[in-house]
Amino acid sequence: MKSNPVFSEDVVPITDLKINPGRVITQVDKTHRPVLLTSRGRGVAVVQSVKDYEADTEERSFLRAVVQGLMDVEEGRTINLADAKTRLGLA
After folding, report:
1. What is the 3-state secondary structure (H, E, C) of 10-65?
2. How far apart, in whole angstroms, are the C-alpha atoms of residue 31 and residue 26?
3. What is the pLDDT of residues 46-79, one digit of tens each?
4. CB-based burial of residue 74 (10 Å sphere; 0-12 exposed, 13-18 middle, 19+ buried)?
5. What is the pLDDT of residue 3?
6. Is the pLDDT of residue 85 over 90?
7. Domain ranges, ordered by start, for the chain
8. How far apart are CA 5 and CA 11, in angstroms?
9. Distance from C-alpha of 50 to C-alpha of 52, rounded to nearest angstrom
10. Which of 10, 24, 40, 90 has its CA at a distance of 20 to 30 angstroms from the CA of residue 72?
């Protein structure tokens, strides 16, 4: 389960990444929180585990589909259950 960023731990200067990349990778894997990389005090990149990135991407995609479905219902773009089953080959 991911938690919110802890700014005292999750903001890392890019020079620290160059010196000890293993520490940053271990941190994102262990904490499931992304790390913000900075250069000259400004955010330049985010390091996140692949597993967490994929989960976030899947969740965003699902939420977009739900919102689109709700918009379709609001705008009257619906079909009845029998027709849906027929279209999906479930009838």
Report:
1. HEEEHHHHHHCHHHHHHHHHHHCCCEEEEECCEEEEEECCHHHHHHHHHHHHHHHH
2. 8
3. 999 999 999 999 999 999 999 999 999 999 999 9
4. exposed
5. 75
6. yes
7. 1-48, 49-91
8. 9
9. 5
10. 90
Nearest residue to 69 via CA among 59, 81, 82, 78: 78
Contact 13, 5 (CB under 8 A): no
Give CA torsion, residues 3, 5, 9, 10, to 10 deg. Answer: 120
Helix (H) or strand (E) run with residue 89 in it: none
Q: Count CA within 13 A, CB hemisphere, residue 90.
A: 7
Could you tell me if 10 and 34 are in contact, meaning their C-beta atoms sit under 8 angstroms apart? yes
For residue 30, give both structure tokens.
């262990």
